[in-house]
Amino acid sequence: MITESRLKKVLQKGHFAVTAECGPPKGADPEVVKSKGKILREHADSINVTDNQTGVVRLSSLAACALLKAEGLDPVLQMVVRDRNRIALQSDVLGASALGIRNILCLSGDHQCFGNQPQAKGVFDIDSVQLIQTVRRMRDAGEVIGGEKLSSSPDMFIGAVANPFADPFRYRAARLATKVEAGAEFIQTQCIFNLKRFREWMSLVKELGMADKVYILGGITPLKSVRMAEYMAKNVAGMDIPRELIDRMKAVPAKEQKQEGIKIAVETTQALKEMAGVHGVHIMAIEWEDAVPQIVEEAKLFPRPQV
Amino acid sequence: MITGERKPISEIKEMIAPYRKVLVVGCGSCVAECAAGGEKEVGLLSSALRMDAKAAGQEREVREMTLDRQCVYEFIDQLTDVVGQYDIVLSLACGAGVQAVAEVFPNINIVPALNTTFLGETKEAGLWLENCRGCGDCKLGFFAAVCPITRCAKGLFNGPCGGSRTDCCEVDSEVPCAWQLIVSRLEATGRLDLLRKVHPPADWSKQQGRGPRKIIREDQRT
Amino acid sequence: MDKKGSDVTVSVFFCRQLDPNQDVTRRALEKELGKRIRFFPLPCSGRIDALHLLRALEAGADKVYVVTCPEGACHYREGNIRAKKRIAYAQSLIEEIGIERGRLELVVTSAGKRLTIDELTRELLGRDDKGAKA
Questions:
Q1: A292 near A302, Cβ under 8 Å?
Q2: Which CATH number applies to B2-118?
């Protein structure tokens, strides 16, 4: 069993990395997870597993990562701070490491009011930045919050998210700096539709000297339809979909919109490949994992390198 | 102040249903300020309950009283000669007041007419906003007097999250993003440096306590 | 209501600005109807409180009117707007105990006619006599 992070190796060797997202099922069937892993296997270096995304109860990220690990894949454990206190979070970091999981993505999580358990207590004992700091300290200093020593340290490649498109815009690059200072080693951004704005953010990031301190992977989500584009633009917080893209999707007949969405995703990926300071792409094809191989191939990122 | 809201009358009626003589006691402090449990509200509720009883052909006596502050025994003592004449006390105080009265008169029936809600400010007449969660470890000085625990839906100390859009919280578009406010205010006063360091995890034991918290001041005790 | 018009007990809260002579003009009706009518002149309809309305109902009024100046013409600017909101509040409260909200009625006078409180009230009661609702 591989006990090293493939994602880390790919990035350290200077390759343009490809990660993809896998959403676990709203059920207990492990085969769903395994079959998604199969689809993504050859086309992604590592696979992110979401953690009860949008506050909807799903098969746990930790368990799904373990299932993918058993299939020989390199999972990225997404860990939100909404559902667990520091005891549980630190415990799960140890557990994940014990299971051979080598990548962790620390995030706040969507507020519980959005999911199917709106009456749940949102925990938020520590926030995502404090979680990054905690994992880093567990790994490098071998201790938990409070200073007590661990008998053995977890081995994790630590990631965080960035949203170049949320407000306040001018503060977003500074926020990235805070996460890097806390210990983040790689960043996956919110999905990019507005390349112009993303470039602006990248230059702010460079100005802060962050570009060579952290690996940035640009997020991509292929649009399935113009309705999806309009829905996301209107309802999803922190999303920026320019009018021209929506019009472009509109101009295409309904049954060709999926392909147009993939085309846009490929174009964006190619733009990211050319951008200095961007080290990879993170493809979030929500309930459309099938699209990932096509996007990767058409963006000329297939086959994935041997590391 | 502590805010509260009157329970639906149907719920209140159910609580007092078995009783014929009801003493309605309001409080002149916080709940009067938020128009939920002051003298006026005592009057409104009592009138309603009397009319309701009359319409249903029930015998019910409803007496009205309001204490300056229902959580202080000095004022609660004013009930001493009265409370025994009634079958039940319907208190319009916040939970603190209801319980304080029960501590002074442990053998009476007392029920709450309000749902106590939050600590907050009167933003304008008729609008009260939560702004403090009594964490016991006030850090307002670091956050431009915008409490991140209370006013950020996720209680982030190193915010904002990725969901804020046009200055609003992803959870409620009418609520400003607290972190947007914090950043703007610190920027305006040249204190963005306060956000450079990672703010460490909070000590929630100060808020949770080991059960109910207490404060003791020997210099104030007899 | 199944009460006949002549048996109805009425309370009328009204803004004094509507009829500067109300002190005189209302006496006739008070004499005619005796205990079945009570007038409450206010310096502005905005002074009405939900509590007054509940007390009036509790005191036996079958119907409570709150008469305000025309919209936009309040001497104190938003008094009549406040009155409207407070009546709405009192209405939702009485609904919780099964009393019809129609027992409390907001009457906004129109900008054109200048009626005395006597003429106004007779009109209102006339409506009641016919059993018609506003």
A1: no
A2: 3.40.50.1970
